[in-house]
Amino acid sequence: MEQNLSQYKIFYEVAKAGNISKAAKELYISQPAISKAISKLEDSLGLSLFTRSSRGVQLTSEGEILFEHTREAFDALDRGEQELKRIQEFDIGHLRIGVSNTLCKYILLPYLKTFIDQYPHMKVTIESQATAQTLGRLEQQKIDLGLVAEPSVRRDLAFIPVMDIQDTFVTTPNYLENLYLREGRDTSLFETGNIMLLDTSNMTRHHVDEYMEENNICPHQILEVTTMDLLIEFAKIGLGIACVIKELVQKELDSGLLVEIPLYIPIHRRTIGFAYHPSNQAMALKTFLEFLY
């Protein structure tokens, strides 16, 4: 489009009014300036848009075609402005969040409940996915926010810590007692027990694998599970020894349903928080960040 928007706006207002003086009053510019803008637009398009008479101006057939298109365009702009005003007035926006199933259920949901109570008109989209995918989509700015374990490499992302978590191994007292009866009290639990871990595509599994490698722990029998919830449920029925997030089973530990396996060196604690791209200027993201603080 070679012509600037102001020329089309002047053309549109003149066509609506059918009179240059009326359009001049509507646009708060002089009649000569309007006439000059129309002439310039006609010259650049290479055709006449109006026929002129003492009673005013009338669209040519070519002008009628252009008027229909400019009317659609300016109506669309008006609708856009009204939508933005509505968003501002009612705190409406679209917040896109990436999060794993586990962090969504146990950490994000309480935040979301309070946030939605305060901003009931906000549209929220949840992308349930692995942490690696969330970080990648944050870098590409395809989502606004990610609830993740603090990445070792920030990747130009800002990070707001929410809580620390402790990975640990748990099982039922019965499973542990039966294992000792079968293998002896001095048995190595990681060599004789059924060790239940998240599958290797999970970032938590990478964290635990690094710990086991650093401490020369080599499980002989591994059961891989796709979700933390399944790990917890399998541990509760006595299927084996599960590596879980301690904070998620604290109630079971307190009640004695599960017991924690002592580790000579604990697994390194991790920090969970909200990550976002600093250059993202979306109003919904700004609203959520203000809510956090």
Protein model, in words:
This protein is an alpha/beta fold and 293 residues long. It folds into 3 domains: 2-89, Arc Repressor Mutant, subunit A; 92-161 and 269-290, 3-Layer(aba) Sandwich (D-Maltodextrin-Binding Protein, domain 2), CATH 3.40.190; 164-268, Periplasmic binding protein-like II (D-Maltodextrin-Binding Protein, domain 2, 3-Layer(aba) Sandwich), CATH 3.40.190. The chain has 12 helices and 12 strands. The chain has helices at residues 5-17, 20-27, 31-45, 61-90, 101-118, 131-139, 173-183, 189-192, 203-214, 228-236, 250-255, 283-292, and strands at 50-53, 56-59, 94-99, 123-128, 145-149, 158-165, 167-171, 195-198, 222-225, 241-245, 259-260, 270-276. The strands form 3 sheets. The chain has a 5-stranded mixed β-sheet with strand order 4-3-5-12-6, sandwiched between helices. Helix 9 links the parallel strand 8 and strand 9. Helix 1 (5-17) packs across helix 2 and helix 1 (5-17) crosses helix 3. It is rod-shaped. It starts with a helix and ends with a helix. The mean pLDDT is 90.
Order of SSEs, N→C? HHHEEHEHEHEEEHHEHEHEHEEH
Q: Which CATH C-level class of the largest domain is it?
A: Alpha Beta
Helix/strand-derived category reads: alpha/beta
Largest sheet: 5 strands, mixed
Alpha-carbon distance between the two ends: 45 Å
What fold name stands as the CATH topology of the largest domain? D-Maltodextrin-Binding Protein, domain 2
Number of domains: 3
Anisotropy-based shape: rod-shaped
Strand content: 15-25%
Rg over alpha carbons: 32 Å
How many DSSP H or I helices?
A: 12
Neighbour order of strands in the largest sheet: 4-3-5-12-6
Share of residues in helices = 40-55%
CATH superfamily of the largest domain: Periplasmic binding protein-like II
Domain HTH lysR-type: 1-60
GO molecular function: DNA-binding transcription factor activity; transcription cis-regulatory region binding
Keywords: DNA-binding, Transcription, Transcription regulation
Protein name: HTH lysR-type domain-containing protein
